[in-house]
Amino acid sequence: MTSEVGVVLPSLRAVDEDGAIRLRDEPRTVPGIVLAGALMADTPPRPRGERGRRHVTLAMHLAYRLSPGAGPLHGQVVDVIHSDPTVVSMTRIADAAGPIAFGIASFIEVPATARGPVRLPDGTSGSVLDRLAGGLDAAIRDHVGRDRGTDTEPIRFDDELRNPRGAMHGAAVYATLWLTAHARIAAGSGTSDATRPIDGRARFLRPVEATAVTLVSTIAHRSRRLVDVDAAIVVDGVEHATGRFTFALTPED
Questions:
Q1: 28: domain range?
Q2: pLDDT digits (tens, 9 = 90+) for 193-225
Q3: 31 exposed, middle or buried (CB, 10 Å; 0-12, 13-18, 19+)?
Q4: Within 10 Å of residue 238's Cβ, how many Cβ atoms?
Q5: Distance between CA 202 and CA 148 in Å, rounded?
Q6: What are phi and psi of 139, to 5 degrees?
Q7: What is this structure's pTM?
Q8: Total domain count for the chain?
């Protein structure tokens, strides 16, 4: 299902010729900032060859330097490495207080397909990214909270998180995995608000085109100071995206 009305995530991101990334939105919540950071890290390079090509995300890695704070956020593509048939883009992400993350994303170039209309919503108050990520976070927290083991009840996503081709945008896939891992900590110990993101790695195995998916998350390792959580997006028993996320636990934990 392709969303032809409302916001398409790439329309919130603008990239200058020198690789500077700015957002047409200012998220202020942690879920919104996580989605925004993933959107900036998932900035595809300009196709080098024939026209009519596009980039598909294969994997994304964000290393968090500071706990995300209030915007405005900005980014900078600091390097692009071409190794046919893939290309790797490195992005520095910061807010007003300084750097908050460093992102690495790998892409593969494929033939482009027809795109639907891309436009910003009219008359929207507040942050679009906060609204989208907040709704996603609430649904995931409810989903994970009802099942403290693996999460087998399907969850549905807002069409606005999809790209014009009908699949979930790479930034939305990453944010879903991150928020699922974050919610898993709360479901296990009630301490999700007492964590700081350290590292997040996601692998994009297949396009997430289904309208309802299953989220699976487990705590892979936990020490006094750190917790590693594995998360996956599953459709009909097949993993479409996986990730491992590391959070630091605060002294209050």
A1: 9-111+126-249
A2: 468 899 999 999 999 988 889 899 999 999 988
A3: buried
A4: 10
A5: 22
A6: -65, -40
A7: 0.85
A8: 1
